[in-house]
Every structure is written in C-alpha cells, then in structure tokens.
C-alpha cells in the first residue's frame, strides 16, 4: 500500500497587507490559508503560467491593434472629408466684393453657431459618417468617358 506524501511545513514572512488580503480571501472561500497559499505558489511556479500570461497579453494587444486600426480609419475619413469639402468650397465660392464681404463677416458668427449646433445633433443622434462608409471600400479610378 502506498502511503500519501506528507506535506512539509514552511514558515513564510508576508507583508501585513498581503496577509490581510490572504486572510479575507480564505474567509470568503471558507478554505484554510495554507491551501490558498499552496495553490497560489503552485500556479506561480507552473510552466504554463507564462504561456497563459502570454496568451492573455497577446489577446489584449490584438484588441488594442483593432481599436487603433478603427481610429486610423476614422481619422482618415475625417481628413479626406474635410479636404474634399475645402476643395469644393474653394472652387465653387467666388470672392465677395468688399461691401458684401463686410455683411458676410457680420453673419459669420451666427452661421458658425448654427453649424456647431448641427454638428452636435449629428454626433449625438447619428448615424456617424464612419458608419455610413463600409470598411471594405474597393478603390476604383473613375472612368473617363
């Protein structure tokens, strides 16, 4: 008959905060502190612990990479939208004569406030421009004809 291995006693010095945390955890789980400490040490020394940590880190990095890709896409859409608008506006808006320019400057504040209010409504209610543009746009050159 094989006799079970006898456990070896060990004295460990713990920081008071660590001891308090261990004690509270053991009380919640209704388990002896030595059993929890043994499980923690076993997990720490386990060769697959490094692999689990690496897998968790890789998963988090993948999530961050996807978020950054979405941010890059959204910024690209924003920059292109603004550039397209500015080019269109500059090519279609003739310069105003001075008396009309003064009147336009007088209305500029109110028009800007209306623009900001409309932008705020669009951002809060949606849909967002980035949601209207598919992720997999195929770039195609316009055909001349």
Topology:
Blueprint: H1 16-29, H2 33-45, H3 47-92, H4 98-125, H5 129-132
Mind explaining what this structure looks like?
With 145 residues, this protein is an all-alpha fold. The chain is 72% helix and 0% strand. It has helices at residues 16-29, 33-45, 47-92, 98-125, 129-132. The radius of gyration is 32 Å and the shape is elongated. The mean pLDDT is 84.
Low-confidence segments: none
What distance lies between the first and last C-alpha atoms, to the nearest angstrom? Answer: 94 Å
Mean pLDDT: 84
% residues in beta strands: under 5%
Q: Count the E strands.
A: 0
Question: Main attributes?
Answer:
145 residues, mainly alpha, 0% strand
Describe the structure concisely for a colleague.
The chain has helices spanning 16-29, 33-45, 47-92, 98-125, 129-132. It has 145 residues and is mostly helical.
């Amino acid at each position: 008959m094989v006799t079970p291995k006898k456990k070896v006693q060990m004295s460990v010095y713990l920081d008071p905060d660590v001891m308090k945390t261990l004690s509270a955890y053991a009380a919640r789980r209704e388990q002896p502190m030595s059993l929890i400490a043994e499980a923690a040490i076993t997990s720490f020394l386990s060769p697959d612990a490094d692999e689990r940590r690496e897998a968790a880190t890789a998963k988090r990095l993948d999530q961050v990479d996807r978020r950054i890709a979405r941010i890059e896409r959204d910024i690209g859409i924003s920059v292109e939208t603004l550039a397209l608008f500015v080019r269109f506006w500059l090519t279609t808006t003739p310069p105003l004569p001075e008396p009309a320019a003064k009147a336009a400057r007088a209305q500029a504040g109110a028009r800007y406030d209306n623009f900001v209010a409309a932008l705020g409504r669009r951002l809060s209610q949606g849909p967002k421009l980035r949601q209207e543009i598919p992720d997999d746009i195929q770039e195609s050159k316009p055909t001349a004809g």
